[in-house]
Design brief:
single chain; 205 residues; alpha/beta; Rossmann fold; globular; methyltransferase activity; methyltransferase; transferase; Methyltransf_12
């Protein structure tokens, strides 16, 4: 399965068949107010299809470490955004700041707490004062169905957390963190957590 998902087309087909890509679209629609002129940075952008669901006129930048995904994104959506095959590191944070919204769709559960602390520090740097980190991941919760738990146990990501785990890792970098559990986003039964982490507004002198 992992080898098959290296194909941008097969990856997107799998995401759409299970309703997981649709979950991203639904979460963005529910929680984000994205308007033309806003600067959006997408870490783990994959083949880039999410840009189709963003307003025309946003300044979109996508990062992914899979070259085939970035090649596909650039060829299909290069007129809507810029795509880079590289880690989102401190240099990139300095280069692209200030950003209004950073998106990490299906990314946090692939990264250990220690590594994620570095990534989130870079996210905090790239955001403008008052900017927002938006994340969407699978989430364990008490009382969830056996099938939903099985789906999470067998996810490609090795760091699926419960709500407290996500709050802990986000809260080490961001003072204000809101988490929202959703179970009706996808065709297959799945427990999602939407994360909203806010960078503090800059205080006036």
């Amino acid at each position: 399965m992992k080898k098959l998902l290296e194909s941008p087309f097969l990856y997107q087909s799998f995401q759409e068949a299970g309703g997981f890509f649709g979950a991203r679209v639904k979460a963005i629609s529910e929680f984000l107010d994205i308007r033309p002129g806003m600067r959006i940075l997408d870490i783990g952008c994959g083949p880039g299809y999410i840009v189709k669901y963003l307003p025309q006129g946003v300044d979109y930048v996508g990062f992914d470490i899979d070259q085939s995904y970035i090649d596909h994104a650039s060829s299909q959506f290069g007129q809507r955004g810029r795509f880079f095959c590289q880690f989102f590191d401190a240099a990139a944070a300095q280069q692209f700041a200030p950003i209004d919204i950073v998106m990490m769709n299906g990314v946090l559960h692939h990264i250990s707490d220690a590594e994620l602390a570095h990534t989130l520090a870079n996210v905090h740097t790239v955001l403008r004062p008052g900017g927002l980190l938006f994340s969407l991941d699978g989430c364990y919760r008490e009382g969830q169905s056996t099938f939903r738990k099985w789906m999470l146990d067998n996810d490609r990501g090795q760091f699926v957390r419960d709500e407290a785990g996500y709050r802990n890792v986000l809260g080490k970098v961001f003072n204000t963190v809101d988490l929202h559990i959703r179970e009706g986003y996808s065709r297959l039964p799945y427990t999602f957590v939407v994360g909203l982490a806010f960078k503090a507004q800059q205080l006036p002198n």
